[in-house]
Structures are given as structure tokens and as C-alpha cells.
Design brief:
By secondary structure, this protein is mainly β. Helix content is 0%, strand content 72%. It contains no helices and 4 strands. Strand 2 and strand 3 form a beta hairpin. The model has no long low-confidence stretch (mean pLDDT 84).
Length: 71
């Protein structure tokens, strides 16, 4: 059981297309991994962002360090 407010540990994002003022963007996060440790754990998420035309404008990976609940 991981809990607490996450602290962003790292982020790798890559832009593919420009985004302009007035564009509508649609972000999506998918949990792709859980890395449990003794007192903490890391949640790994794939991030994608599409624009109003459905084109992929950004993608990458986020890693969040979380503290485990006390036993």
C-alpha cells in the first residue's frame, strides 16, 4: 500500500509537434510499473498528450516516489 503526497522523482518528456495558444490538448497517464522498496515505492507512468486533431504532441515517462503506510 503506497500512500502520501507523491514527490516527483524524475520525468522524461519528448515533444513531437508544436502546441499553440487556443489548441486543446488531451493528456493521458498510464501506470506502467510499480517498484516496491522497504519503506518507499516508485510508481512509473507513461504520459501522452494529443492535440485536437488527434496528433501526438508529447510523450514520456514520469516516476513518482511514494512513502509506504506504516505497518
Amino acid at each position: 500500500d503506497l500512500h502520501s503526497f507523491p514527490t516527483r522523482r524524475s520525468s522524461d518528456l519528448y515533444s513531437f509537434k508544436p502546441v499553440y495558444v487556443g489548441d486543446t490538448v488531451y493528456p493521458m497517464l498510464t501506470i506502467t510499473g510499480l517498484e516496491p522498496g522497504r519503506t518507499t515505492g516508485v510508481v512509473v507512468m507513461r504520459a501522452t498528450v494529443h492535440n485536437q486533431a488527434g496528433l501526438l504532441v508529447m510523450e514520456g515517462e514520469h516516476r513518482y516516489l511514494l512513502r509506504k503506510r506504516p505497518a
